[in-house]
Every structure is written in structure tokens, then in C-alpha cells.
Automatic annotation (TrEMBL):
Alphabetically ordered keywords of this record: Oxidoreductase
InterPro entries: NAD(P)-bd_dom_sf, Sc_DH/Rdtase_CS, SDR_fam
Family: Belongs to the short-chain dehydrogenases/reductases (SDR) family.
Gene Ontology BP, a term: fatty acid elongation
MF annotations from Gene Ontology: 3-oxoacyl-[acyl-carrier-protein] reductase (NADPH) activity
SUPFAM superfamilies assigned to the protein according to its UniProt record, in alphabetical order: NAD(P)-binding Rossmann-fold domains
Record-linked Pfam families: adh_short_C2
Signal peptide from the UniProt entry: none
Gene3D superfamilies, sorted: NAD(P)-binding Rossmann-like Domain
Oxidoreductase recorded as keyword: yes
Enzyme Commission code(s) on record: 1.1.1.100
Organism whose genome encodes this protein: Microbacterium lemovicicum
Protein name per UniProt: 3-oxoacyl-[acyl-carrier-protein] reductase FabG
Domain of life: Bacteria
Amino acid sequence: MTEARTAVLTGAAAERGIGQATARAYAEAGWAIAVLDLDGGAAERVAADIGAAFGVAAYGGPIDVADESSVEAAHAAIEQRVAGGALPPVGALANIAGITSPVPFLETTLDLWNKVMAVNATGTYLVTRAFLPGMIERGFGRIVNMSSVSAQRGGGVFGKVPYSAAKAAILGFTKALARELGSTGVTVNAVTPGAVDTNIRVGSTPEQEAAIARDIPLGRTATPEEVAAVFVFLSSDQAGYLQGATIDINGGSHLH
Ligand SMILES: NC(=O)c1ccc[n+]([C@@H]2O[C@H](COP(=O)([O-])OP(=O)(O)OC[C@H]3O[C@@H](n4cnc5c(N)ncnc54)[C@H](O)[C@@H]3O)[C@@H](O)[C@H]2O)c1
């Protein structure tokens, strides 16, 4: 990376989460980081720890990605720090915040459907809409959206219908936005992990875990760090020709 840039990450505070591992991977690659999460206190602590460990500028604060005014406030807090010189300009946005829907279809409620769509799909829309104008203005940006193998093959122990639909919406969003971005210097791509070993899977039974592993040619779930590496690569200068792509990282569990 030739110039200092900030990577903004949503859903990046959870212990053992993909977001936190991704914040660490960006910092290791020399990025400043802005860690945003529903749990703003945890985001602040995670940012401070990672910033100190890797010697990069770091900010952590609250966001509810499903709430327009919360997204605007988080965006303003970051731009204020950029303007004051505490953070370099935003170069990457990793839309990672998400929630699952482990409920069979006939047990779902409209409330659950709306919530899962709001955090996964509307959240990706709102946060992208907030940070994209600055990226276009600077002529550089990397947006990386968290989808899931559930969008491609449907369902899964945790994925079920609302989650699969919301993660599929993110793929359509990514492709359509990629076409609109043209030669602005901003790219937008999606990542579709299979099962990853995080707390999102807490509550699964040993039988469910064994069934998941049996279905993966590599015979194991991914580590958060393995997924984090894909985000950092998609945000690099070298990834400039990847536009609207879907990058699978699923141990071979879904092959096109
Ligand atoms: N773990 C897996 O097997 C797996 C597989 C494919 C995709 N994913 C996706 O990866 C992402 C991260 O998953 P994880 O396993 O690390 O989960 P996690 O539950 O450990 O982390 C999710 C984070 O998102 C935050 N969050 C939830 N709602 C939010 C909101 N409204 N606004 C802001 N932050 C919010 C949570 O506080 C948490 O820190 C999710 O989008 C998930 O759907 C996970």
C-alpha cells in the first residue's frame, strides 16, 4: 500500500468473530482501522488493542447498521477523525455485520424476516451509501460485502430461509453496484464463506457439527483468519481488476 488508508469494518467486535480477525488482518497489512459494532464499548476496546498491537491508528465506536441515523452518526464520527488527522482517509469498507436465522421456514415470523433482512441486506446498503461518495471523490475505494454459501446453495444449520435470502440479496447488490461504479476507482466484491468457527455457531450440537464437517471436502470448518485474508486481499491495490466478483471460501463444500 503506497499511502496510508483506513479500513472501516462493521460487526467487528465479537470475540472469535470474523470481523475482529479481519480488523487484525487489515492492521497487520498496515491499514488504519475503524471498528464499528452494535456493541460500541467492545468495538472501542478491540480497536485500541489492535491499534496498540500493530502500531496503526485505530478508532472503535457504535453502529446499528440497520438504522439510518446510527449509520450516519458512525460515518460522521469517522470523517471527523479523518478531518482532524487522527485517521487517514477511508480506503476500504468491510460490511461484515450479520445475524442468522436458525428457524425452519414455517416457524419464522415477519418480525424475524424483517430483522434478518434489515441487518444483513439493508445494513450493507446503508453503510455503503454512507461511505461510497468519499471513495468516489478520492478515486479509490474497496468495498467488500459479507455474503455466505447459504446464498448459493440455500439453507444450512444456521442459514435457513431469511438468512439465505438476505445473503443472496447482497450478491445482487454487489453485482449491480459494480456495474454502476464503472471506472471510478472503487471496486465492490462479495465473499461467500462456508462454515466458519465463530460464536455465531454457539448452540449447535456435536451431531450438527459432525454433519457440517462431513459435508466439507477439506473435513473442517474455516478459521476466521482464513476468511479475513480474503477481505484484505480484495482491499489491496493488487485486487483492482476484481469488480463485482463473488469469492468462495468454503473448503470445497459448494463448487460451481
Ligand atoms: N460463522 C460462519 O459460519 C459464517 C459463514 C458465512 C458467513 N458468515 C457471516 O460473517 C459475518 C460475521 O459472522 P461471525 O460468525 O463472525 O458472527 P458473530 O456473531 O461472531 O459476529 C457478528 C457481529 O455483528 C455484530 N452485529 C450484529 N448485528 C449488528 C447490527 N445491527 N449492527 C452492527 N453490528 C451488528 C455483532 O455484535 C457481532 O459483533 C456475518 O455477516 C455472518 O452472516 C458467517
